[in-house]
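#lab-general

N.A. 3:47 PM
ok so I finally got the sequence cleaned up, no stray characters, all 391 residues accounted for. can someone with queue access submit it? mine expired

B.Y. 3:52 PM
send it over

N.A. 3:53 PM
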Amino acid sequence: MNSKRIAGLLVVAALALSGCQDALDSAAKAERPLPPAVIQAMKAKGMTRSSPVMVRIFKEEGKLEVWKRKDTGRYDIIASYDICKWSGKLGPKYMEGDRQAPEGFYTIRPWQMNPKSSYYLSFNLGYPNAYDRAHGRTGQHLMVHGACSSAGCYSMTDEQVAEIFAFARDSFRGGQTEFQVQAFPFRMTAANMARYAGDPNIEFWKMLKVGYDHFELTKVPPKVDVCGRRYVFNQIAEDGYDFKPTAACPPMSQPDNLRLAYENLEKQNGEVFSTAVSTAGYASSAPRRPSIQGPKEAALVAAWSKKRARGESVSREPPSLQTATPEIAPVPASKPAEDQAAPAETPRPVVAAEQSQPVVPLPAADPREANAEDGAPVKSRLKKLMNLFGG
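B.Y. 4:20 PM
back already:
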């Protein structure tokens, strides 16, 4: 056997071994168990390793939270992570190349989990969703991933994303078919909404706040639909009607106790909002983060991104239509109970204290999960949802 052939065989063998090692490394990352301290914290809260999970993201605060369902049927926070990097500004993603991280309500299914990611581990957010598509928004491969590097994604450290991945993996193996990601520009309190009252994205954020408030009231991920090119939450279409993203919303209703609780909360929020915006100079002096100024700015940034990708000379920073950069908002002095958390034995995740605010009465199980596998038609499940909420 000549030396060239031997060398060739050695190269092939080396590549094969390298491929096997890559596969083993991917499997090891994807199968990494949750830390014992987290397992203990879950047990203390009435959660199991396979309990359903959901994720909340807050851009301004730079937080990603993992919530799990307790044995009461309600969800509670189990971990909070500092987002390593997210790109762009506050506000939604409009188009491919605008460098914006998405905002909205997204659904994650098992096929969106990527154990072989180039960014350690990742899951695809599912952008564009039905709402995004109804508005003609474009983009792809928007992720939560590791490697602490972002161009439109939410990037975590490898250590963080391994734990987040494990939470989702264990819940899927426990029978959860999908989980919800709620991505917000900031914690959507009335005071924060008042800070951004004059922002061009405020109407979009008001719509997101409805879903935010429904979760705050129930501690159950809201049922999300899109009709009339807008999100609607916990609504039940009348018999014979469906939710269609670009069509007018059908006749629909909501469980009475949830509707009344939301109306009461909305009234309280309105009073706080009105007081804040009526304070002399509040809207102009309150610290805020920069926000994207609509599709026109998104198009400018997308064009800048294309030129940069082609190696053309561009400015160091993407173009902006914001005439003056707002003062960067400090971390709020007063945080919700879930942030006032006692850390586990390791720096992350942060295990939070029990919420004390009242919530809307619910059955002992999340109605969406309880009926997810019963084979009943969607309309039948929605009728059950109405009954479970007491409507």
